[in-house]
Amino acid sequence: MKRVNRSISIAAVASLLLLAGCGGGNTATGGTGSNSGTATTNSGGSSTSAAGKTMFLGLVNPPILFNPINSADVASQFVEKFMFDSFLEMEAPLKFVPKLADSFETTDNQTFTIKINKDAKWSDGKPVTAEDAAFTFNLIANPKVEISVGSYLSMFEGVKDTGKLEDGKTELPSVKVIDEKTLEFKTKAPVDPNMIKEQLGTKLMILPKHALEKIDPAALSQDPFMQKPTVTNGPFKFVQYKKDQYVEFEKNPDYYLGTPQLGKLFIKIMPAPNLVAQLQTGELQMNIGNGIGKIPPQDYETVKKFENVNTKSEAQYGFQTMMFNTEKITDPRVRQAITYALDRQQIVDKLLRGYGEIVDGPYTSVSPYLDKNLEKYSYNVEKAKQLLQEAGWDFNRELNFVVPLGNKVREQSADILTQNLKAIGMKVKVSTYDFPTIMQKAKAGDYELLLMGLTFTLDPEVSSLYSSIGSFNFMKYKNPKVDELLLKGKAEPNPDKRKEIYTELQAIWNQDVPVISLYSDSDFFAYSKQVAAGEPKIFGFHNHLEKWSMGGAQ
Amino acid sequence: MFQYIIRRLLIAIPVLFGVTVFSFIIVNLAPGNPVEMFVNPDTTQADIELKKEALGLNDPIYVQYFRWLGNLVQGDFGYSFSTYEPVLNMVSSRIGPTLLLMGTALIVAYLIAIPIGVLSATKQYSWLDYFSTSVSFLGISIPHFFLGLGFIYIFAVQMHSLPTGGMNTLGSDGGFSDTFKHLIMPALVLAAGIAGRMVRYVRSSMLDILGQDYLRTARSKGLREFFVINKHGFRNALIPIITVIGIDVSVLIGGAVVTEQIFQWPGLGQLTIQSIGSRDYPTLMAINFLAAIAVLSSNLLADIFYSVADPRIKYD
């Protein structure tokens, strides 16, 4: 009797709470608009001072360190670009605009000349020179220096195939300082300038020689400079990084492209649901997007209804894949059958709520190299079953389907994909792991089907995925014709001829399907209506940060 | 008593050594390794090999362990495999916030739970008893992340009265009241579970005592009920409760991990999650080492408090 009483009271309390929860939900959209105007003032988010206004940006993945030549994570590379400038910016696909470099040119596609902006200087007043650039190149190629950007220099003349100099050497013979602001370097063979411009031009940030030349190259990674850069050349100066909480920047008043409008800029780090809440309360003026500060797709419709923010979604060039271990699923017909069996449209419609696209192959719709005439794999159960019959598939065989944790949409997509495979009679065992485990399983080939997201450069060079020696070729895919064409594509300086090569490659990959691209999800951005200039975007986010400003009275 | 404490401290040394060996093995057994987190399409195989060598990952595990131990003895926790920062700096900057959060949560939990538990027991089967046991059940069973997000929704998004996360308002100098405001939600979330459990322990412990003969004796002496309960009753009920406090420390460490994550509280819990995600061995080892020390010392403290609560308990 007593037990009954108790459970009744528990049930009563629980249902009360549930009711309270529902009630709150109904008023959410109506109530926020009227509150949002005052929210920013009482949340203490923004402040106005003589030094200029402050902006708060939201990021989900915490940056690891601020070593521009040794950061492998996207978040670190992204944050570094607020304080270190790259030579160029990519404003739109393959549209390069000058930044630290006034010009970045070549006449023979092999010898490149970079002219550094004559006004560019480091935050301590010293000019940014060609010596700084040469110093950085030499560090990257130095066999003792830990780096993560080796591929940028791998085509330079004088480096080994690994991208490093011979042991004992510390200077690249192909890099020449012409004068204080002019640098020249040479590649092993002629290459497409767009490839160099994208990697070396928009991604590489150079280091101050005068601040770092006395440090032992082998100990460079551990130097405090790499956690707290003291000498920078970007629009903002580093103030502090409260680990995993926020990065604080202040304006660099001597910035060569003009004094920034904002006095301070904070990049706050938080889980994605908090990002949404803080956009609503006005504690954030912007989310960063770009895969590292994204609004979850299921929340985007809610954010769109906030009255204090503008929103937009953009296609990106990262995409999700299902990889096949081609040593275990050897018959291409089986891989084709699986591709036909997957209802990718359902993932885009249900999980991405329509904000995404189905892609076949490694190029999304933003890539100029996508072959739009390529035959697509549409959802076709009958065809899938027929192909499996032809290939003599053993329906008792169980496939090990490995799914990484961390990306909610991808985890949910695994459920849909599993159902799709069961619908054609295949047996699947799903196992989920955290990322380091996934990498180990992927490398060891300890899987049959594997989900993984990939983001390459916009340049079509994707050897790391499809080449038989590629570091991302977890599929163990070996096709001599592909290897040959990939090398040819990398070495071809003429963009039109390159396009032909990559069109041919896309046709082969479409037949062999060592990996299926599942979908490319749009990125979602929201930014406060208080922001007068500046907005988050996929291309050229960091371009003209000095012009960013907050409007009116706050 | 003093000798007892010294003896306990001496025993702690081999225990700690054992903990480091085990955790080193377990940390290294986890699939994947720190260097694999560095892989992106811009990274070459040579970059990866160089890192492995530089971090000493190519050495056999026992060599790695003794190198770590050798440094530890000299007070050096090494440097992080992902951020390259000295581990000691990373960990020590996180201890303060974690202690503040855990301490506040513990105090709040006990301030709420002990009186309610005592009342609940003395007024057994009253509406107050049912209500408090139901609410405490809820406190135990509600997941931290759920309660945390609910709080954020109500107090930050709807009412705009509390900040959604962090420890200080950015751009301000912080100060006591600012930190206090940031502390309220995470401390309450963490306190909910502890208080829920504690109410039940106090209640059942008190119920045991309330039926004892010596309480009847105390009452028949004409003592006022308030003194009967609080002096004679509660003191004796304390023994099992102290045991629970000792255990709570390890539970608290687990709860803090989730809570710190939700509220971006810059404590050890958050650091732990990230270090696991990046297989940052030196940082994980340092955290394990500290957690072991915390658990050992909270057990020792509990034992000392036993003898304070009950003079019959003596240690020689």
Any idea what the shape of chain B is?
globular
The largest inter-chain interface, given as chain pair and residues per side, is: A-B, 88 and 65 residues
Q: Share of helix among residues of chain B?
A: over 70%
The computed structural class of chain B is mainly alpha
Q: Would you count the extended β strands of chain A for me? A: 21
Structural class of chain A: alpha+beta
For the CA atoms, what is the radius of gyration of chain A? 26 Å
Counting DSSP H or I runs of 4 or more residues, the number of helices of chain A is: 15
- Output mean pLDDT of chain A: 87
Distance between the termini of chain A: 61 Å
Describe the 3D structure.
The complex is a heterodimer of chains A (554) and B (316). Chain A is an alpha+beta fold. Chain A contains 15 helices and 21 strands. Chain A has helices at residues 2-42, 74-80, 130-141, 193-203, 209-212, 272-281, 297-305, 332-341, 344-351, 381-391, 408-423, 435-444, 463-466, 480-491, 495-512, and strands at residues 53-59, 88-92, 95-98, 101-106, 111-116, 175-179, 182-186, 236-242, 246-251, 262-269, 286-287, 309-314, 319-324, 356-357, 398-404, 427-433, 449-454, 515-521, 523-528, 531-533, 549-550. A six-stranded mixed β-sheet of chain A has the order 14-18-13-17-15-16. In chain A, strands 8-9-10-1-11 form a five-stranded mixed β-sheet. Chain A has a four-stranded antiparallel β-sheet with strand order 4-5-7-6, covered by helices on one side. In chain A, strand 2 and strand 3 form a beta hairpin. Chain A starts with a helix and ends with a strand. In chain A, 50% of the residues are buried. Helices cover 75% and strands 0% of the residues of chain B. Chain B has helices at 2-29, 45-54, 61-73, 87-122, 127-141, 144-158, 176-210, 213-220, 225-263, 268-277, 281-309. In chain B, helix 5 packs across helix 7, helix 6 (144-158) crosses helix 9 and helix 8 (213-220) crosses helix 9 (225-263). Chain B starts with a helix and ends in a 7-residue tail after the last helix. The mean pLDDT of chain B is 85. The chains are: A alpha+beta (554), B mainly alpha (316). Chains A and B meet through helix 1, strand 10, helix 6 and helix 12 of A and helix 2, helix 5, helix 6 and helix 10 of B. Chain A: Pfam families: SBP_bac_5. Chain A: Keywords: Signal, Transport. Chain A: InterPro entries: Peptide/Ni-bd, SBP_5, SBP_5_dom. Chain A: Belongs to the bacterial solute-binding protein 5 family.
